[in-house]
Amino acid sequence: MRIRPMEISDLPVVMALEQATFADPWTHDHFVYEINDNPYALAMIAEQDGQLLGFYDIWIMFEQATLNQIAVDRRYWRRGIASTMLVDALGRLKAAGAEQLTLEVRVSNDAAQAFYAKHGFELVMRKPQYYANGEDALYMVRKI
């Protein structure tokens, strides 16, 4: 598996994965901004044999980083791809001087919460009505 920067040519597959994964998916234009214009964005693709397996998007702002999204194509779940992407991200963040990685996760997403806890994220607080549908988020932090 190879992890590389996301490119505009990846967006058809990224958008399909985005729509299949997230209740409030990002738009095509949002990803274009992340790739071309956002100086704080780290948008990466995991692929193997030309097949896009997943992606992640992180914002790095000095010593603080925020995991916006991490997604794996359901056909490739439970193969360690998300863990490999997260480890890759942590290495890149450390090299960039980031000291902690934060994220929000839906209170209803038990699988994601367990994944993040397994990878050293700790619950800091609950954010009421964080998502568009009124669902609360859990704010989690991991030291790098």
From the structure above, extract its key features:
alpha+beta, 4 helices, about 30% helix, single chain, about 140 residues
- In total, the number of domains comes to 1
Global morphology: globular
Count of DSSP E strands? Answer: 7
* CATH architecture grouping: 3-Layer(aba) Sandwich
The Cα radius of gyration reads: 15 Å
- Mean pLDDT reading: 96
Low-confidence segments: none
User: By helix and strand content, what is the structural category?
Assistant: alpha+beta
User: Looking at CATH, which topology would you report?
Assistant: Aminopeptidase
Distance between the termini: 23 Å
Please characterize this protein's 3D structure.
- With 144 residues, the protein is of the alpha+beta class.
- It has one domain (2-102): Aminopeptidase.
- 31% of the residues lie in helices and 36% in strands.
- The protein has 4 helices and 7 strands; from the N terminus they run βααβββαβαββ.
- It has a 7-stranded mixed sheet, sandwiched between helices.
- A hairpin with a 2-residue loop joins strand 3 (51-61) and strand 4.
- It is globular.
- It starts with a strand and ends with a strand.
Could you outline the blueprint of secondary structure elements for this entry?
Layout: E1 2-5, H1 11-21, H2 28-36, E2 41-48, E3 51-61, E4 64-72, H3 81-95, E5 100-106, H4 110-118, E6 122-127, E7 137-143
Structure summary:
Helix content is 31%, strand content 36%.
